[in-house]
């Protein structure tokens, strides 16, 4: 945080125009690969900026209720087109601010995913099946999911495009459901967010949706953030980030009954059964190491815990993984704060009894880096301190838990907190099937996504995807932040119409099916047809 400066400060996007922020404090981004301060000065908004954005969003929500779904879809599609037109510039800026590789990570993976989910959201906007329209023709009662109100989206530090507050999955879902968005950009990549917001405004102008459909603030004082999520005009909040900050926002939102959807903390356990080790130890060691160290371990689905059953083969697998950690150059971490937190959490685990196998030192390389770190504990150590040994170590570190036998492995899983993912590797010939059944039956209730013979890193933008899970992975296990159309339902309310005259009903609840022919539950039967007379 800097003092007031005479250097030109980037404007914020409020009510369809770029304007100066009222807050006088500023900040700048840093290149994590070098530690050098980047060009560009960005404002920390004060409450008056929040108030202006809320007033504009409330007015936009009123207008959006009469905007055809096809027009909202046109905005999302046009926005995707405009992002693609600036793909090289966006990828370069995001790389500069995060040290993530332009290719393949940003240009070939994350940016295509960003535009893909915007286009999927556009398709969902015009087909109302996801709104779960339900009609009881005899009682003349009808219901569906309707937009909720302005949505505040807090983007994370580790996905500058696909989870960005002004372009990512929460953003796309909220807009497709018919809500305006106030995006809270992440301060680690403000320049990237600025470029995206420029194209969002261009798409607003191209499509004719209300000017305040998308607004953006770069940074806020934490107190103003809590006040923002609790404002009466807010419909819902989407947050991806650290557990401490997320829970403070949740407490503020809960006090006034605002729904807030959190992605917080996840160790994403990987369990490898003995038969799998005997069959393909080298491949598993390579896959696990790559998954842990990809992007310096800064994925929400990075595996933070490996559960094995004690054996000479398990010890050999651990040595193979440690060797691969040692042979891999540590990647840059997103910020000095990320590096400091990583060191602090590794120290906590070691002080609690974890054995250091490799790492736990500053890397002798430029920028914010830490040596690839692998820790080891016994199953009994885990059972003695399950909360401590499930501390999320965000970054290029992981921990091996070695249970003495299958029974102890069962007890370890029984103490797992909620996670986004859980993976089990077993022998392909079926030798481990009985053990798999015993462990999977426990694990599947503790994770949002169960994987077999596959590492968890990476999230497909698929309608069947669940990127959620029990607390502390998220704030509510019923919802997903990835997977359209399910992700849209977070930003809606259930509206019921009892004996309302036909011409006053939303089109999707009228007797005649809309042109898009959504699936509707009519008198207990799913159909795309009209209500029978």
Could you walk me through the main structural features you see in this protein, from its secondary elements to its overall organization?
The protein is of the alpha/beta class and 533 residues long. It has 2 domains: 50-264 and 480-533, Aldehyde Dehydrogenase, Chain A, domain 1 (3-Layer(aba) Sandwich); 270-452, Aldehyde Dehydrogenase, Chain A, domain 2. Helix content is 37%, strand content 17%. The chain contains 14 helices and 21 strands. It has helices at 47-64, 69-85, 87-98, 102-126, 169-176, 190-207, 222-229, 243-255, 274-293, 312-327, 336-351, 379-384, 406-414, 433-443, and strands at 12-14, 17-19, 26-27, 42-43, 134-136, 141-147, 151-154, 181-184, 214-217, 236-240, 260-263, 270-272, 305-309, 355-358, 373-378, 397-403, 419-425, 447-452, 492-498, 520-522, 525-527. A 7-stranded mixed β-sheet has the order 14-15-16-13-12-17-18, sandwiched between helices. A 5-stranded mixed β-sheet has the order 19-6-5-20-21, with no helix packed on it. A 5-stranded parallel β-sheet has the order 9-8-7-10-11, sandwiched between helices.
């Amino acid at each position: 945080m800097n003092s007031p400066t005479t250097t030109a400060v980037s404007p914020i996007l409020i009510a369809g125009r770029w304007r100066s922020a009222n807050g006088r404090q500023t900040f700048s981004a840093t290149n994590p690969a070098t530690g050098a301060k980047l060009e560009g000065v960005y404002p920390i908004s004060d409450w008056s900026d929040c108030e202006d954005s809320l007033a504009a969003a409330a007015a936009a929500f009123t207008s959006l209720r009469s905007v055809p779904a096809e027009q909202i879809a046109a905005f999302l599609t046009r926005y995707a087109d405009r992002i693609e037109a600036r793909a090289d510039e966006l990828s370069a800026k995001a790389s500069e601010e995060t040290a993530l590789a332009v290719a393949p990570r940003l240009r070939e993976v994350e940016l295509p995913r960003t535009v893909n989910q915007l286009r999927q959201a556009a398709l969902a906007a015009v087909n109302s099946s996801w709104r779960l329209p339900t009609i009881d023709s005899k009682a003349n009662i009808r219901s569906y999911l309707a937009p909720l109100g302005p949505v505040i989206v807090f983007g994370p530090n580790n996905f500058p495009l696909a989870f960005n507050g002004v372009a990512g999955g929460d953003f796309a879902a909220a807009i497709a459901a018919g809500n305006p968005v106030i995006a809270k950009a992440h301060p680690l990549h403000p320049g990237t967010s600025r470029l995206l917001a420029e194209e969002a405004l261009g798409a607003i102008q191209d499509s004719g949706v209300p000017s305040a459909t998308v607004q953006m603030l770069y940074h806020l004082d934490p107190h103003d953030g809590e006040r923002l999520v609790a404002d009466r005009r807010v419909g819902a909040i989407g947050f991806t980030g650290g557990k401490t900050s997320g829970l403070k926002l949740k407490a503020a939102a809960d006090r006034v009954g605002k729904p807030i959807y959190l992605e917080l903390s996840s160790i994403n356990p990987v369990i490898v059964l003995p038969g799998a080790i005997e069959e393909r130890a080298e491949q598993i060691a390579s896959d696990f190491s790559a998954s842990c160290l990809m992007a310096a371990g800064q994925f929400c689905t990075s595996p933070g815990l490996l559960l094995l059953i004690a054996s000479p083969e398990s010890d050999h697998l651990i040595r193979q993984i440690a060797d691969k950690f040692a042979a891999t150059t540590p990647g840059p971490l997103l910020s000095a704060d990320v590096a400091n937190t990583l060191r602090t959490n590794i120290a906590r685990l070691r002080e609690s009894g974890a054995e250091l196998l490799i790492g736990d030192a500053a890397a002798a390389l430029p920028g914010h880096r830490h040596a690839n770190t692998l820790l080891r504990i016994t199953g009994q150590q885990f059972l003695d301190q399950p909360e401590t040994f499930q501390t999320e170590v965000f970054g290029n570190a992981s921990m091996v838990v070695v249970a003495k036998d299958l029974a102890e492995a069962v007890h370890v899983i029984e103490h797992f907190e909620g996670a986004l993912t859980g993976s089990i590797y077993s022998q392909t010939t079926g030798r481990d099937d009985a053990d798999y059944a015993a462990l999977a039956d426990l694990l599947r209730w503790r994770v949002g996504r169960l994987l077999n013979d596959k590492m968890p890193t990476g999230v497909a933008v698929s309608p069947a995807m669940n990127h959620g899970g029990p607390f502390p992975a998220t704030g509510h296990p019923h919802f997903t932040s990835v997977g359209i159309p399910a992700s849209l339902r977070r930003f809606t309310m259930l509206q019921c119409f009892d004996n309302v005259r036909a011409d006053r009903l939303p089109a999707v609840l009228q007797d005649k099916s809309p042109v898009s022919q959504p699936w509707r539950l009519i008198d207990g039967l799913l159909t795309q047809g009209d209500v029978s007379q």
